[in-house]
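hey can u check if this looks right to u? its 656 residues, i copy pasted from the old doc so theres a chance i mangled smth
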Amino acid sequence: MSRPTLTAVFVAFLLTSSVAKPNAKDKKPKQVVPAIECDMRAGKINLPEFIVKCPAKCRETKEKVYGTGVFASISSICNAAIHNGVITNSGGKVIVMKMGGQVTYKGSFANGVRSLSLPNWRDSFSVSVGKPKKGVIYPSTLIFVPSRPTAENTVSPATEPSSTAAPPTTTHVTTPIATAPPITTSATPRVTVHEVREAGRSHPYFSSVAHSSYSVPNTSYKWNRMSTGDPTVLDPRPDNTEYEQYGQYPPEPEDHKPLSETGHTKDCKVDIAFLMDGSWSIGKRRFKIQKDFLVDVSQVISVGVAGPMMGIIQYGDDPVTEFSLKQFSSSKDLKPAISKIVQKGGLSNVGKALSYINKNFFSDANGNRGGAPNVAVVLVDGWPTDKVEEASRLARESGINIFFVTIEGPDENEKQNVVETNFVEKAVCRTNGFFSLPITSWFALRKEVQSLVKRVCDTDHLVCSKTCLNANDIAFVIDGSSSVGTGNFRTVLQFVANVTQEFEISDTDTRVGIIQYTYEQRLEFAFGQHNNKADLLNAIKRINYWSGGTSTGAAITYAADQLFSKSKPNKRKIMIVITDGRSYDDVRAPALAVHRKGVIAYSIGIAWAAQDELEYIATDPDREHSFFVDEFDNLYKYVPKIIHNICNEFNSQPRN
């Protein structure tokens, strides 16, 4: 037998290799990740667990999120992932796992996304980083919950399908390449308008939670005109077409609370004082129209201990309480009580009436519940006969949300008779029209019942109430010594800007002042010197590095004298000391002095800062108010912790 040639041997080797190839280890299949939009809710996807890819800039869309850590299924997947620190605002992959319903979903602020509270929603989900575990392949096709007609959107009898008609087909969105079959599950029940409305929502005051990462938030609202066409009636509700397939308006429980078919609001828990005009200028007929208006309002808001409570003050020369918040617990009882009110007469002293409610009306003895926002609705015929600005400011700083309803206000010729020009703008906390309702005629007043009720019940936008973000005077005391250096000083200023960015800045909200110190002290700017966020952030950026020694104790005393001595009443006084070394003077006595004056002190030490001094400076407990970082570049990590602690401390205190 002849020997095989070299070519034959090589061919045989190739054939043997190709036969053995199927026994080799299979190549790992590639995970294909479906892309979604920012508005995609977890409840719309009919899969128990799946992976998706979020686009960039979802945070700017303001798509709603409910809960913290575990989110209600009507939440935006992408914004929930940003809130939880799973992705940044640049987008990315997210793994979603469906869960059972929760008793409550607590709102918080994290990573630039403000989540809202919601009670008792039946489905929930969690999010995690989009890196599947070894051997796990998620569906490359998303299966959507089928849409079904609602009771309000049914077909007519002539075209109604028979009972044997096939059920709606499931909608799929398929990526170009599918490497794994879709997981199929039993249909998830569709979110209905009725169930969202029944779920309601809890009070909007929130406490922040520790962020897993920090990014500068975008806290602006997008205002749209309401369908009334009235340019003064603003609706802080984003355009939303997700629920159009159901033939009805999107059931967002956090926006303007819907009115039921009978006209009653749902979940409107506020304590409302109506200041009715009893002056002689109003006349008997218009006084009767005013009473009828208040009767209409009392019936629409559905007064009760679980919802809104309502009291009335009549003002003229002097204010008098017609009945307190706790006097009537039902709309039925309010109606005859309002009808029996007798006009007092006198001037139209609105400022005096506002001072009265601030000092006397919203008290525990009068039925103030503490857990509900305080609202004062002032009805004014024409214009006040006294000044309102100072009384309004003090009332707002006490947490009272002031609305002005002006009927037949002054025309151009009458404005010269007004005691205080632009009195409405000076009285309310925002001039965007939300807190003011001008009515051209008394005969048009009763047409505005629904508009007013929507506003006073929109607790997410009662921004004059005190919260942890709008009720502070914050003093930053910054070490400018030679050991810091120019570059590190800029890092400190960025840290200060990041903390400041989280707060609502204005003369009636949070105010910020800054002191830089070496052996000496320099007031960079005082409380109220910069009354909007943009100006304040620019002022921080412009601070120049000083250089010198380190006298922290003297700087604390200087802050007490130059800043906190001018702090407003009803403001929380907060001091944040940032230093990188041991002080040349004593810090204990100055720190104790400011503690005794009610200042909440935080200390942040960097590099060579002395731990004992940081603890002396900080308010007890030290672990909540004193922090240390090994280098300046790590300062940013403590932004969320400080905001979290400030809000936790605020929310643990009784309101008003």
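Residues 283-301 form the longest helix (19 residues).
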